Amino acid sequence: MVNLNITMADTQNDSIRLTVEKERKRLLDFIRKRVPTQEDAEDILQDVFFELTNTYRLMKPVEQVASWLFTVARNKITDRYRKKKPTSLEDHFAVRAGDDGDRLDISDFLPSNSNSPETEMMREAISDGLMAALEQLPAEQREVFIMHEIEDKSFQEISEITGANVNTLLSRKRYAVLFLREQLQSLYNDLFNT
Fold first, then answer.
1. Number of domains within the chain
2. Which of 57, 86, 95, 100 could form a disulfide with 91 if both were Cys (CB 3.0 to 4.6 A apart)?
3. Rounded to an integer, what distance in angstroms lies between the CA atom of residue 16 and that of residue 8?
4. Pick from 119, 168, 162: which is nearest to 143 by CA?
5. What is the distance between the alpha carbons of residues 19 and 26, in angstroms, rounded to a whole number?
6. What are the two backbone dihedrals, phi and then psi, of residue 103, each rounded to the nearest 5 degrees?
7. Which pTM value belongs to this model?
8. Are residues 95 and 178 in the same domain?
């Protein structure tokens, strides 16, 4: 009995190893196109192969392994975007780099770096207002707005990540923009007493 278990485990390990060797590059390329960093792609890839190993260990047959791997990868990417909540607006803007490779920071969009109390108060009010406005958006609108405007993803990429069609995404972004304009107009009026 022991020899039979060892033989089955060896067979499973060989199957897993061969699948990883065969699909790793193609799967990593697929994931990398849909996430902001190489590190995120590697993490998701490891999660996918972990799922594969667990599936083999639980003796669940996978008939179309390549298709199954890409489905799991797509689901892991979607889960990561749904769970990922940046802790601050600065984190959102830090995702995207300028044309010269410099990191964009929220301070690039706020009043000058003067340290006067008035400027500091205005900067805090703008930052707080932007964050509050983003948090008031429905999750689906916030997600598409952040992915398109801040992470610089195309609507096609967002569609592949979320599973929503492009027209739905365009509509969600339009509603997000209209809402943010209204909220930021109120902030502008309050700050400049107009």
1. 2
2. 86
3. 12
4. 162
5. 12
6. -75, 130
7. 0.42
8. yes
Residues 113 and 178 in one domain: yes
C-alpha distances (whole Å) from 12 to each of 23, 24, 59, 115 are 16, 17, 9, 63
Last residue of a domain, one of 54, 83, 112: 83
Domain co-membership, 102 together with 79: no
Instruction: Look at the chain and count its residues.
Output: 194
What whole-number distance in Å separates Cα of residue 29 and Cα of residue 6? 34
At 103 the three-state DSSP class reads: strand
> At residue 123, does pLDDT exceed 50?
yes
What's the pLDDT tens digit per position in 5-36? 556 666 767 777 888 888 899 999 988 888 88
Name the DSSP letter for residue 37: -
Q: Are residues 96 and 188 in the same domain?
A: yes
For residue 22 the two structure tokens come to 């065969």
Amino acid code (one letter) for 167: N
Alpha-carbon span 18 to 151, nearest angstrom: 35
Integer angstrom CA distances of residue 155 from 19, 82, 119, 138: 32, 17, 37, 18
pLDDT in tens, 76-92: 887 777 665 444 444 44
CATH number of the domain within which 15 lies: 1.10.1740.10
